[in-house]
Request: fold
Amino acid sequence: MIAIIKTYNFRLYPNKTQESNLSKLLDMARLAYNKQLELKIKTYKEKSINLTQFDLNNNLLKLKQENPFLYDIHSQALQNINQRISYAFNNFY
Reply:
């Protein structure tokens, strides 16, 4: 049996305000990704403890308190960042 996968491509044409907002959100998401990745690597090197996605999700509150602008990002988007980090590490090892 052959599986058929449909895909859709959409092109966005944001105005200047929307473009600015998207840029800010991407910058905040990039910062969150890098901070969580740094925490995961640092914890493994120092304590030989591999942080799970659950552990990274529990760290989100502390990360938001250190960087209050992260409250502007939806919580599921930040959890998805942790999911992608865990997925990458699980597939690597």
Q: What stands out?
A: The helical segments are 16-47, 53-58, 60-66, 75-92. The radius of gyration is 17 Å. The longest helix spans residues 16-47.
